[in-house]
Every structure is written in structure tokens, then in C-alpha cells.
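Course assignment 3, question 2. Fill in each field.
Student: A.L.
Task: Predict the tertiary structure for the chain below.
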Amino acid sequence: MWGTGDLLLDGDGDYASTPTAVTPTDAGFSVTAHARVDPATAGHDMTVLSQPGVHTSLFTLRYVAASQTWEAVVAHEDRADAPTTTVSAPADWAASSDEYLALVYDEKADELRLYVGSSYPAATAGVAGENTWTPTGALQVGRTLTPDGGTDHLAGAIDEVHTYAGVLTPTQLAQLSLGGVDI
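Answer field:
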């Protein structure tokens, strides 16, 4: 999608992972990616990125088939029944070759933001009184990792994955949406 390479996934169990976890700070964290859903398989939920802990994921950035939306979910504790905050925005993957997605957890402003394409932000939710926690697993690209194994494998492509401790500004997010890497 950008540059000379992207990660193509067929939705049949393939994925990628990083050697370490995303480490949030007391200010929060930001994650971004360009994603393309295969229209032939858009009838099931698919995960773009997730950051597992022992019992649940700190965050999941995914496509929800029933509503044809992008969704960002943040768990506030590492336990199976942890309270979560969710934001969603319409997917417009059919109108373009890929969508730029950004999840920003701004702990100081008590806000979870989801950016889709050029919508800054596309959706927000308050997270007053909630904190992040430090995950233990490797960042998952193209699936959600649960204690029972991988689920919601992506059929499509992912490119330009970026993770940051702290909160990116709208200007920095706009630069990343255009394929920038030096922010």
C-alpha cells in the first residue's frame, strides 16, 4: 500500500507479531496502521492489531462485519471479565484501496479516540477514572490472541504499523496517514 511492501493475510490462520509488547505510559499510547479488508471475506469480524495480556487484550483494533464498522476496544484490567471502553466508526474500505486507522488512548485527557481515514477523530469515548495496564504478550498483527488461541484472522493487507508510548497529535497522525515515518 505504501512503499515497497505490505503484509498480505488470507484469513486462514496467518498473522505476524512483534518480539515485545506495546508499553503504555501514564500519558497513554497511540497505534496506527493502514488496512485493507478483502471484500470477498468481509462477512466476518477481523482484527487488524491487538495487544494481549495474560487474560485479555489491552486493546483491539478491528473490523466488525455486522455493522461494517471499525472498532477500537480498550480493556481497563487484565482479566477475562474486565471493563472495556469501545469506540466505532463506519468502514469505508469499499470506496478506497485502504483505510488509515489510529487508536489513541489519552489517559491525561480521559479519552479514547479512533481515527479513520481523514476523520480526526472519527469517534471518541470518555475513560475518566480508568487507567492502562502493562501487557505481557507480543503485539499481534492480523488476529486477536486469547488464552484459547488466535481468533478473528484478517483477510486483507496491513501496512505502516506504528506504535507509540504517549499521545500523538492530529498533525503527527496526519503525517502518518500519508505514509510519513519521521514524525
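Instructor remarks: The first helix runs from residue 170 to 177. The first strand starts at residue 7 and ends at 10.
Grade: pending
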